[in-house]
Structures are given as C-alpha cells and as structure tokens.
Amino acid sequence: MSKAARRIRTPAPGGRSGPSSGTEFGDTSYTYGSTAVEAIDGKSATTVTRRYDHLHRMVLEETTAADTVGRVVNRYLPPPANEVSTTITWTSGTSTKSQETSRRFDSHGNVLEDRTPDTRTEYTYYPADADGFTRLKDTTVHSLSSGEVIPASTPSSGLTDPDSGPITIR
Which of 106, 125, 107, 105 is nearest to 115 (CA)? Predict the structure, then answer.
C-alpha cells in the first residue's frame, strides 16, 4: 500500500485574508485552516480538516474515515476567564455520541483545572523560579459521581472513549 498525504491551506468559509483591522488582537473575523487527505492506493482513506482563529488557536478539527466522523470544537472564553470549552462528537452511521470538556488556565498559561463529565482535575504549581518558570507541584483528581479522590498516579487525560469510558494516563 502506498500512502500519500497532501496539505491544502485555505481560508475557512467566511474567513478573510489580508491586513489586520488594527484591533488589539488583529482582525477577529480572520480564520484559516488546512485539510490533509491520506490516500491509500490512490483512494481517499482519511481526511482531517482543521480551522484556526485570528490568534492561531484551533477552533475545529474534523476527521473523516469511511462512515465515521470525529469532530472537536473549541470555544475560547476571553480573559480573565482563560478557559477553553470543548465539544467532542463521534458519528458512525446513524449513531452519534458527544461529550463536553473544559480546561481553565492561569494568566501564564498553566492549566489550573480540567473538567470532564466524570472528573474534575486540579493542578497546583510551585512558585515561579528566578527566570519566571513554574513547575507542576500536585495533581488532584476528583470523581464527580462518587466524590472520591482518584489516585494521582492514574489521572484522567480529559478524554473519554465513547464505548469504554474515561481514558487514563499510565
């Protein structure tokens, strides 16, 4: 089997190219993206489409293979919230499953909290060193259904397999 991939950079529908409007973060209507197609023996096998906003944050990733579509949509809340809310949807044939997750950051970009339908994970950091860098001090994972603390050696990755439940890091 031969594999070939090609990448096409195109503006998203309604997206614009060109100079910024001069706002603090540039032209907020500007979006762009890419589409990668993996072909096996000359036939399209998998297509991955990604779209980014004017701050180069991914707002959409859609993967299509045969009759299965995986779609990840990110919504970013502005400071001081510093939060991204993600909707993950899997569609296969006539069956669709979806899940909401969120991630909250501090003003330096460190993850403070991850939320999934089943868990809430809190992260704490050591004070910044002389160069301003922080290091992860502790991770606490709380089960939202039972209220118990899950051992930090197997924290949730923030993802859930639609068939087998939460995916853990080992």
Answer: 105
